[in-house]
Amino acid sequence: MPEYPKTLGLVLAGGLARRMGGGDKALLRIGDETILERVLGRFSPQCEQVILNANGDPSRFAPFHLPVIADDIPDFAGPLAGILAGLDWAAKNTPDIEWIASVPGDCPFVPRDLVARLHRAREESGQPLACAKSGDWRHPVAGLWPLNLRADLRKALLEEGLHKIEVWTGRHGTAIAEWPDRPLDPFFNVNRPEDLAEAERIAAQNPAF
């Protein structure tokens, strides 16, 4: 069993994918698998359970047999709205779990040790939150979130209209778990058609990665 607290996994796929021309980036294919299949294959073994944050008709994700949780903050309020939706779901459905780990649904090479290293960074630093970093780039959506900050996050979103992750996390303190970005960045994400082509090249040339 993992040597860290029980953690619920949250895949964030609630964005509008404007740079891809709309649709669900998580359902795009790299080789013979969707990006979401790749994410789940790496992320699910690290978590007690995985849920999916997505807006619109949830039936398009039915083959994955996951709870699909929509934002309850209106107007596509960004990743913090998805994180709040996950925290609310956990509070109602998994009362023995105090932590959520989130990953973006367009990150096909997410590390297989992400949750362990986020917890380790949090414990070593004494901070309540943690996020990933590769090379010079922080990845605030690949993060660790305690349920005890759920009310504060809801207040920030609804009463302050605050949507920037690092503004909110900066109020509380965030530990950083670091990965190298060479030879390949494990947090490579698919935002544009050319990124999808690059992901296909990476997967073909690096099957283990």
Overview of this structure, please?
The chain has 209 residues and is an alpha/beta fold. It has a single domain (7-205), classed as Spore Coat Polysaccharide Biosynthesis Protein SpsA, Chain A. It is 32% helix and 22% strand. α2 crosses α4 (150-159).
Short description:
The protein is of the alpha/beta class. Helix content is 32%, strand content 22%.
Unreliable sequence segments = 17-21
CATH class: Alpha Beta
**Biggest sheet, in brief?**
7 strands, mixed
| Oligomeric state of this protein | single chain
Class from secondary-structure proportions? alpha/beta
Fraction of residues in β-strands: 15-25%
Give the topology string: H per helix, E per strand: EEEHEEHEHEEHHEH
Q: Span from first to last CA?
A: 23 Å
CATH superfamily: Spore Coat Polysaccharide Biosynthesis Protein SpsA, Chain A
Tell me how many strands there are: 9
List the helices and strands and how they pair.
Blueprint: E1 7-12, E2 29-30, E3 33-34, H1 35-43, E4 49-53, E5 68-69, H2 79-93, E6 99-104, H3 114-125, E7 129-134, E8 137-146, H4 150-159, H5 165-172, E9 174-179, H6 193-205
Parallel strand pairs: 1-4, 1-6, 4-5, 7-9
Antiparallel strand pairs: 2-3, 6-8, 7-8
Supply database-style keywords:
209 residues; alpha/beta; Spore Coat Polysaccharide Biosynthesis Protein SpsA, Chain A; two-stranded antiparallel ribbon; 6 helices; globular
